[in-house]
Amino acid sequence: MGTMTAGAVGTATSRDRVRQVTVLVGAVVAIVGATIGSGAFGGQPIAQAADGALSATATPVAPDSPAFSIWSVIYTGLAVFAVVQALPRHAADRRLRAVAWWVLATMLLNALWIGVVQAGSVGASVLVIAVLLAVLAAVYVKLVRLEHTSALPSVVTDVTMGLYTGWVGVATLANTAAFLADAEVGELGLGATGWSVVLVSLAAVLAVAYAFYGRRRPTVVVPVGLAMAWGLLWIGLGRTTGELVDETAARAAFVAATLALLAPVVATSTTRHP
């Protein structure tokens, strides 16, 4: 993981205290709101919102239902992050200073995405998740570039944001496919199967790009690969049984999942880490 660098922690300021409290409170609001909005405590589940446009059988690149259990891990990680960054001894942690506001933004965007879907706007959901993916990518770049500080905030931040970034990468492609299907734009020459192969191939390319860009930081890049492999695996499994069987899309998803899983291993094992 690397050792703590000189000057990684400075002197806490009033701005640090404001950031800590705001991120903690904002995280509670965002996580609770997202959990309620997703139907976890009753109400309409996301799979049933927007006339089922985002259900597990809406398109050939929709992950099967068990895939979404990863959200419980991500939400737990975000909650732990919010608490850890709020601890007094981490107030002046330079890495947390650089990413904490951005992490809060991702939580609020995720809650907004759920609200938009519940309102029935699949088109708007694509815009929101695209912005979410961009913000997560910015956080990813920061985490790769910034040296680790103390162990606890570094590991919690890296693992949580790695899983979050990887999963949203797959979800963005699935959300895009759902929008195109909902908009009834037709199969655009390639057919549903052809576009499914294109989309899961793009996911594989994204996974490889993440892996080699972040090869200096195994604690963040490996979770990215795990989350992307998880999502792609459940796309493949979802196409082998159930209402929407597509063997070609399934095979492509399984190959993409394997690449997503192996790319971080190959990238980090061939790189010297600080």
UniProtKB/TrEMBL annotation:
Belongs to the TspO/BZRP family. InterPro entries: TspO/MBR-related_sf (IPR038330), TspO_MBR (IPR004307). This is Tryptophan-rich sensory protein. It is found in: Membrane. The chain crosses the membrane at residues 21-47, 67-87, 99-116, 122-141, 162-181, 193-213, 220-237, 249-267. GO terms for cellular component: membrane. Keywords: Membrane, Transmembrane, Transmembrane helix. It is a multi-pass membrane protein. It comes from the Bacteria. Pfam families: TspO_MBR (PF03073).
